[in-house]
Write a structure and sequence with these properties.
five-stranded mixed barrel; elongated
């Protein structure tokens, strides 16, 4: 939990969202390692003379000096670290990044630091900035959403009998099923099942090792989306735009 202090602290922050407040101010929603998600009042940031404005754009990493307070913190100084500018060069990457930031803004608890939350956020944004397939990043992040909501897809064998000879994935049963236990599910090729398992199991900092074809990613995408819809009830506005990419 966040420690309450009147002292100024310096933190590396990812800017999740900006909301206009009064004539020249904004409220920044940020995520930090030390304090988790915070809301920060940035006074005068909309003025042309503001020295902090360039470091407080959505979806960038900055070094912020803030005054910690219960409720809303106060921005003192801001210095850019990484603009993540390559994300904006691809409409697909930009939409996926918006999807990620929307989830953090709407569903991540305030003032509750969590290293897994921070790592997924920073790694996914860095992958998008470094030209990883945006839909693969989207799949990896949806696995995070499932895990974050207490859901895991069983991919270590048949979810019913644990047989290693799996042929499909069952939304109803929550994981892989073998030839004896699949019902009306689509039979998937071995390489597709293998890719699904890797996406569900790989640590986010090792994801650059994945070698999955675009066609397989497109095949897996509606499967992962169906699990998110069925088991979490999470519905993000950005999803509408993502469906046009698949």
């Amino acid at each position: 939990m966040m420690k309450t202090t009147i002292d100024e602290v310096e933190v590396e922050a990812i800017i999740l969202k900006q909301i206009d407040y009064k004539e020249n101010d904004q409220i920044l929603y940020i995520y930090t390692k030390e304090y988790g998600k915070l809301s920060v009042l940035a006074k005068g940031i909309k003025k042309l003379t503001s020295k902090n404005a360039r470091a407080c754009q959505q979806l960038m990493m900055s070094l912020l000096t803030i005054r910690l307070k219960k409720g809303m913190c106060l921005l003192i100084r801001a210095t850019p670290i990484n603009y993540l500018r390559h994300i904006q060069e691809s409409i697909q990457s930009d939409i996926i990044a918006q999807y990620i930031s929307e989830y953090y803004f709407r569903y991540i608890e305030d003032n509750h630091p969590d290293m897994m939350e921070y790592n997924y956020l920073s790694q996914c944004l860095n992958y998008l900035n470094n030209n990883m397939n945006p839909l693969l990043v989207y799949l990896l992040f949806n696995v995070f959403i499932l895990n974050h909501n207490g859901v895991s897809i069983y991919v270590d064998g048949c979810v019913i009998c644990n047989s290693s000879k799996v042929v499909a994935i069952s939304l109803k049963h929550g994981g892989f099923v073998c030839s004896q236990h699949f019902e009306r599910e689509e039979v998937l090729e071995a390489h597709t099942l293998k890719a699904l398992r890797h996406i569900c199991k790989i640590p986010i900092d090792k994801a650059q090792q994945l070698d999955i074809s675009d066609s397989t990613i497109h095949q897996i995408t509606p499967i992962i989306e169906a699990f998110v819809d069925e088991y979490t009830g999470i519905h993000l506005k950005t999803s509408t735009f993502i469906k046009q990419l698949v």
